[in-house]
Amino acid sequence: MGNVKKSNVKGKKQRKPSKSTIKAHYYVNGKKNKRECPKCGLAIFMAEHKDRFHCGKCGFTEFKKQA
Q1: Distance between CA atoms of 40 and 55, rounded to whole angstroms?
Q2: Per-residue model confidence as pLDDT tens digits over 4-59
């Protein structure tokens, strides 16, 4: 049993970037480029759709006001 290969060998874990790195990516000239989720907190950004903002993590949806 010396040269038996393991079938469930895990690969390297991918490092998640820190929240400060993520947050720096979404700021342009000191202004927020994206909207943060009010439920999830800092560095969790919401997707912007035509008529709404949506958080992919918690599912929170905020509709845009129509003028």
Answers
A1: 9
A2: 655 555 666 777 767 666 666 666 776 777 788 899 887 788 888 999 999 999 99
Rounded Cα distance, 40 and 53, in Å: 14
Residue 53, domain member (yes or no): yes
Single pTM value for the model: 0.55
Which amino acid appears at position 33 of this protein? N
User: Which token pair is 5?
Assistant: 């290969």
- Structural domain contains residue 48: yes
Domain count, the chain: 1
List the domain range (segments joined by +) for residue 42: 36-67
Token pair belonging to 52: 């709404």
